[in-house]
Every structure is written in structure tokens, then in C-alpha cells.
Amino acid sequence: MNYLDKVNVALNGFLMVIGGFAVLALMAVATANVVLRMVHAPYRGAYEVVSFLGAVVIAFALGYTEKRKGNIIVEILTERFPKRLQGTLEGVSYVISGIFFSLVSWQVYEYGMKIMESGELTETLRIAFHPFVFAVSSGFAVLALTLFVNLAGLLVNRRES
User: Fold this and answer.
1) Interhelix angle for 130-160 vs 2-38, to 10°?
2) For residue 153, what is the enclosing H or E element?
3) Is 42 in contact with 119 (CB distance < 8 Å)?
4) What is the per-residue pLDDT across 88-130, written as a single tens digit (0 to 9) for each?
5) How many C-beta atoms surround the C-beta of residue 37 within 10 A?
6) Distance between CA atoms of residues 73 and 41, nearest Å
7) Contact 89, 81 (CB under 8 A)
8) What is the dihedral of CA 53, 56, 60, 66, to 10 degrees?
9) Cβ(16)–Cβ(65) under 8 Å?
């Protein structure tokens, strides 16, 4: 379990570093575009670049946010349940969410493959955007891994207590 948790933490940390650089690049492009607009020379394709970088930032932050329990959890009803039932519901939630985001990752990957095979390019800059789609797919895959690692941790803790 410790090895799996270490791998998960390392993957999430790696994606967060890349996501941090993507945020910096996003801010630089957006700021440069604003400044260039003031002198009537906007950067063509700024919207495309900012959109792709924003998708990468969000996808790469998903697993880290889940690991840190930074997502909103609605506990209005479940906080009144017995601890054992709360743990069971949490486990069921991990299973359903893990399966869902595994499927999302797979389908986004399939979409990226179709885009890559067709040679589709962006409208303004004429760049291939399938690498960004694959990046989003990997973000969802790491989120799914994080959910399954959390489930394993929940099961190990339940056995010990």
C-alpha cells in the first residue's frame, strides 16, 4: 500500500509542477495579448493557447485536489450516519467515481487518437492539438488512480480497526 501511495503522490506532484508551468504560460500569453491589444497588435491565437493551457491546468490539478481532500463534499445527510456506514458510502463513492473517471480518461484518449489520425489542426494557429487532449486524458487517469488508491487505503484502515 505504501508503494502505491508513493507512486500516486509522485504522479500528482509531477502533474502539479507541469500544471504550474502551464498556469505561468497561460498568464504570460493572456497578459501579452492584453498589452498588445493596447497598441492595436493582438496576438493571433491567444484564445486557443489560453484554452488549451487552461484545460491542462484543470486536468492536472484533479488528482492532487482529490488526494488533499480539497473537493467539496456534501455531508448534510451522511454526517448523521454511523461511522461504519459513512465509510461504506465513501468506499462506494470511490468505486463509482474511479470507474467513471477511468472511462472518461479512456474516451478522451480515444478522441485524441481520432484527432491525431485525422491530422486535425487548430483554426487560427494551425497547430496539432491532440497532445493537449492526451494531457487531459492523463489528468483523468491520475484522478482515477488517486480514487482507487484512496479506496485501498480505506479498506486497509477498515481491516486494521
Assistant:
1) 150
2) helix 130-160
3) no
4) 999 999 999 999 999 999 999 999 999 999 999 999 999 999 9
5) 12
6) 46
7) yes
8) 100
9) no
- The type of residue at 91 is G
- In degrees rounded to 5, what are phi and psi of residue 8? -60, -45
What does DSSP assign to residue 81?
A: S
Output the nine-digit C-alpha cell for 64.
Answer: 492532487
Alpha-carbon torsion, ordered 48, 134, 59, 31, to 10 deg: -30
CA distances from 19 to 12, 16, 57, 83, 101 (A): 10, 5, 5, 36, 19
Q: What is the DSSP string of 87-141?
A: HHHHHHHHHHHHHHHHHHHHHHHHHHHHHHHHT-B-TTT--B-HHHHHHHHHHHH
Predicted confidence (pLDDT) per residue in 57-66, tens digit: 999 999 999 9
Q: What does the pLDDT read at residue 6?
A: 94
CB atoms within 10 A of CB 147: 24
Residue 161 confidence (pLDDT): 63
